[in-house]
């Protein structure tokens, strides 16, 4: 299965670069998502990303005040991204492993196409495994 087949095309929820970790957490809860994108400060800046896990293992585990802490302090910036839609799912998994992330943003030039999570990769692999080699060859 290729990257193009496992990509989630939903637009990410963005927070401003001056948001706090509390703002990020509230935004995630309100939008029922497990990550937010920290918007760029300008055209020459990079996007950042914060996941629920980043907040749990970072500021919550350290006992920090989420309402005072800048979101950028626990954001991965620049976001980990891919743009080759022809890559097999295993290469997406390899990129996640190499970068130690559970979600990758997918772009075509400057256009955001969606994201792929570790769960998306697992579903793709499970789908392929349930088809088996004989079924896959006939499709």
Descriptive keywords:
139 residues, alpha/beta, CBS-domain, three-stranded mixed β-sheet, 40% helix, globular
Sequence of secondary-structure elements: HEHEEHEHEEH
Report the span from N to C terminus.
13 Å
- The number of helical elements comes to 5
Tell me what portion of residues adopts beta-strand conformation: 15-25%
User: What is the SS-derived class?
Assistant: alpha/beta
Poorly predicted runs:
135-139
Rough outline: globular
Instruction: Please list the strands of the largest sheet in the order they lie side by side.
Output: 1-2-3
Helix-residue proportion:
40-55%
| Total DSSP E strands | 6
The average pLDDT score comes to: 89
CATH architecture: Roll
Q: How many structural domains? A: 1
Q: Can you summarize the main beta sheet?
A: 3 strands, mixed
Q: Rounded to an integer, what's the Rg over CA atoms?
A: 17 Å
- In CATH terms, what is the fold-level topology? CBS-domain
CATH class category label: Alpha Beta
The CATH superfamily is known as CBS-domain
Care to describe what's here?
This protein has one domain: Roll (CBS-domain), CATH 3.10.580.10. Helix content is 40%, strand content 18%. It has helices at residues 3-6, 21-31, 52-60, 89-99, 118-138, and strands at 14-15, 35-38, 48-51, 81-82, 103-108, 111-117. Helix 4 runs antiparallel to helix 5. 24% of the residues are buried. Residues 135-139 have low confidence and may be disordered.
């Amino acid at each position: 299965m290729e990257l193009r087949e496992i990509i989630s095309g939903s637009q990410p929820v963005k927070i401003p670069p001056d948001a706090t970790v509390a703002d990020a957490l509230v935004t995630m809860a309100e939008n029922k998502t497990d990550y937010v994108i920290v918007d760029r400060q300008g055209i020459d800046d990079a996007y950042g990303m914060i996941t629920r896990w980043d907040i749990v293992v970072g500021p919550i585990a350290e006992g920090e005040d989420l309402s005072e802490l800048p979101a950028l302090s626990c954001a991965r910036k620049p976001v980990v991204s891919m743009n080759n839609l022809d890559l097999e799912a295993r290469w997406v998994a390899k990129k996640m492993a190499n970068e130690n992330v559970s979600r990758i943003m997918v772009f075509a030039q400057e256009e955001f196409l969606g994201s792929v999570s570790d769960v998306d990769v697992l579903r793709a692999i499970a789908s392929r495994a349930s088809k088996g080699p004989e079924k896959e060859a006939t499709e």
